[in-house]
Amino acid sequence: MARHDPLVRLRHMLDYSREAVQMVKGKTRKDLDGDRQLALAVTHLVELVGEAAGQVPRTTQKRYPDIP
Questions:
Q1: What is d(CA 55, CA 52) in angstroms, rounded to the nearest whole number?
Q2: Residue 52: enclosing H or E segment and its boundaries?
Q3: Which of 1, 29, 31, 32 has CB atoms 3.0–4.6 Å from 5's, for a disulfide?
Q4: Domain segments of the chain: what residues?
């Protein structure tokens, strides 16, 4: 797949999301509030998802309407 292939962006979104979920698995909000490093890591992963989402062309978004 080429670097600018929209499916690469979708894969990045999925990978970053899974990583964030894995990081917080078994954690509580209190854990997140008390662990600055964890909070920053999860925040960064969410930002990466947003950046990747912003680079998915409208035509691709329309092809996959089930992905918010």
A1: 5
A2: helix 36-54
A3: 1
A4: 6-62
